[in-house]
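=== RUN LOG ===
request id: a7f3
mode: sequence -> structure
chains: 1
length: 653
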Amino acid sequence: MRSGRPFLSLFILTGLMFLPASFGAQRPGGIPPPNSLSPLDLRIEAERIWTVFGRVTTIDGRPVGGAKVQVDIGPPDRKPQLLETNLLGEFKTQYTLEAKVYTKLRVELVASKAGYLEARESVEFTSTAKKTWEVPLVLRETAQDSNLLPLEDFVSSLAPRLRVSAAVGLVAESARKDYQRGAEEFLDRRSATRAVPFLARAVERQPDCMNCRLLLGLAHLKAGSWTSAEREFAEAGNLAKLEKAAFRHPELPLILGVLETWRREEKKAVGYFLQALEVRPADPLVLQELGRALVLQKDWENADHYLEKAIKAGASPEARLLRVRTLLEEGDPDEADAEMRAYLGTRKAQDLPPAARMVYLQLKERLELKAFGKSQSLVGQPLEELIKAMPELRGLEPAQSQENLPLILTKVGENVAAFFRSFPNTISLEEILMESLRRDGTVQGSATEKSDYLMLARPEKWGLGLTEYRTSHDGKAAKPPSLQGGSMRTAGFASTSLFFHPIYQPGASFRYLGRQVKDGQETLVITFAQQPEKAQMIGRFDVGGVSAPVLLQGIAWVDPTSFQVIRMRTELLKPLPKVRLVRQTTEVHYGEVRFKEIPSALWLPREVTVTVQWKGRVFRNSHRYSDFKLFNVETQEKRKQAALAPETTVKPN
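=== RESULT ===
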């Protein structure tokens, strides 16, 4: 029987392409000649294709697009390739190399991007593997989160422990020498990059040395090799399981817990720290970091408990600073002040690091607020007196109980959170009537102003905030009008509803007053007052270099169907004699605004009246807003052109 036609079959093994021996010239009967290879056979057998690919992410797994990745395979005649990651953080390249020369491929990768520390990884691919694998690179932000334990502090606290304990457990002399040299480079000469090869050889020579792996992992972290570090920590965990003593020493769960806090996985971190405490209940670093994780979870009571224990056990000064924050949240500024004094020691506040100085200023502000004492607020005022003092409440149908208050606050809070979370940039026309009043309430002087009023979204930790400012029609900052007897600029009204945001509700007291028909619409009426010991949203009144914290109270009228705030009134919780501010009353009327570009309506301030009594003088500003538009560059340019167009005057014949 005549043999079939020749066929080509391609197989790929780690980028290697080869052909079966049956390909090539055919002998009678379909049997190929011995040792016969075609030119194509020889070329393919002589070359190997290696694919190098990976992904660049942040510590918490977010892809980093636009990062530069340098890929270096070593030989001087081959310059490193420079790649750029796509939007998913991915990169990929290929090398076609001589198979006899490159039986394995060692690749050095370095990722970089502005605002991040360099990340590096070293991998070795061999011809025995079926294919290459993805190389993950993890970038850490240059500006470290002040809420988290800095890597430098972590290494300086933990590495000396591992240095001693690992050296004691080493048996192989060759491993001991490499380990000691690596520890010297890492801890004495502070070069993690030079330390890694020595520590890696020590681990290779004595793979069962758990603390050697942990110190190598820390060196990888310091050198920017997050993935390699995690691999060493995972191997240490496997060793612990084999020894059936996973947490005989606290260092491994401590490391894993800190990694989880850096990922912002606080619940997982707490679990690891608690396991470490089972082994060593008085470990100061474990107690401190457990306290930190609980602070991040806003579990103030438990955080205070463990931080106090950490301080007694000899933890770093950072534990005191964390406890100051916790005590402030628990409403104990006096104890926080004592802890801050211990943290300061002989230092001056102005010499503190920025994060510590911020806590110090928060403490001083909270101590100032103590002067508010147990102020009589609208929340605790008898309803009869409240209605008598505030005519706006006439016709109120009093609530029989506070049973519905939690549901109302939840629904209103959801609306407020959604408003700030998805707020689009807007611009409107603002008209202001600015008046100075005599003591009898008559107008002494007045002026008017028209300007563009911009409300721009800005990112905040809890969602979005708003920046509000004025410009003239040509895009320049608006100048205040001349007003005989002085004037006072007022703004920030779109943010008034933040008192009901879920983040800020714990800092205020609330009371459901009842139902009232307001402006022809039925409403739910809620009064609120910030609590001096808990308030997080604290304003300040600054004048002539003198400053005082401002806390507010007020009333909100809420639609009972949509739970939308349609009207608010705020005033000072207590007068501020330090800056001679007696009164600051703001009345905001919200209106529904629709834009064709977005499906849902926004409730924005339509009319606002602000009355301020300061230094014996009374000012009243009345604001009106109209012509709302979504703000972008095109909108602004159109407004500029309209403002610059020449005026036309038409005279009658």
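=== NOTES ===
The CA atoms of residues 83 and 583 lie 62 Å apart.
The chain has three domains: 11-141, 151-369, 389-437+450-638.
=== END ===
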